Amino acid sequence: INSKLLIKTINKMKQIFSLILLTFSINSYSQFAKGNLLIEGSGNFTSGNSTTDFSTGSNNTSNSNSFRLTPEVKYFLKDNFAITGGLNYNSSISSSTSNNSSSESKAKSIGLFCGFQRIDMLSDKIGMSFGMSANLTTPLGLKEEDLKSSSLSLSLANIGVIYKLNTKFAIEGSGNLASLNYSRSKRSSNI
To answer: For the chain, what is the mean pLDDT?
Structure first.
């Protein structure tokens, strides 16, 4: 077996597994009636590395780590319809080495988001969710040499599947089918 192909396959599997974990959240109160408050949260940690060997004899090694935490609150204005709001915290570090030169970049950001979600229960245990949201993200506590990135995103079609474990807890897997994004990044020129 080609070891480079195996490493690439393992790294791809890590990315897919991280995306799957990222989309699941645990609800602390899964009653979807008017006036109820639902508290959610999600988070993930990813780590990856790769090495590329060129036919010229040079190589490039890259390493990256990222952490994300997203607490969220939903308030039900009427049965099965909630307004949502929360925070995003992201932190990442990446480094690259190519022959005798190396570089490192760090990025931290915090964001606020709000939106709405409609939930339709198909049975006592299984339901579907549909929502839209807006997210504004800005850099946090950065040094001059760190990557600075701000963004505004509109999620136009968040769709999910809900499984109620009991009257207090549910698991929700969701994904974003369509979005609009605006992003601005800046890095110091001495890197």
So the answer is: 81
Query: What local confidence, expressed as pLDDT, does residue 107 receive?
Result: 78
Residue 191, classified by CB atoms within 10 Å of its CB into exposed (0-12), middle (13-18) or buried (19+), is exposed
DSSP summary character for residue 187: -
Q: How many angstroms separate the CA atoms of 171 and 131, rounded?
A: 16
Question: What's the pTM?
Answer: 0.66
Distance from chain centroid for Cα 42:
8
Q: Say which residue the tokens 């299984």 belong to.
A: 126
Rounded Cα distance, 143 and 99, in Å: 27
Quote the CA–CA distance of 94 and 47 in Å, as a whole number: 10
Q: pLDDT of 11-54, one tens digit each?
A: 776 666 655 554 544 443 347 889 998 888 888 888 888 888 77
Which residues, at least 6 apart from 134, have a Cβ–Cβ distance to it below 8 Å? 113, 114, 115, 152, 153, 154, 155
**Closest Cα partner for 28 from 139, 146, 140, 172?**
172
How many whole angstroms separate alpha carbon 170 and alpha carbon 163?
A: 6
Rounded to an integer, what distance in angstroms lies between the CA atom of residue 144 and that of residue 113? 27
Cβ burial, residue 190 (10 Å; 0-12/13-18/19+): exposed
3-class state of residue 5 by DSSP: helix
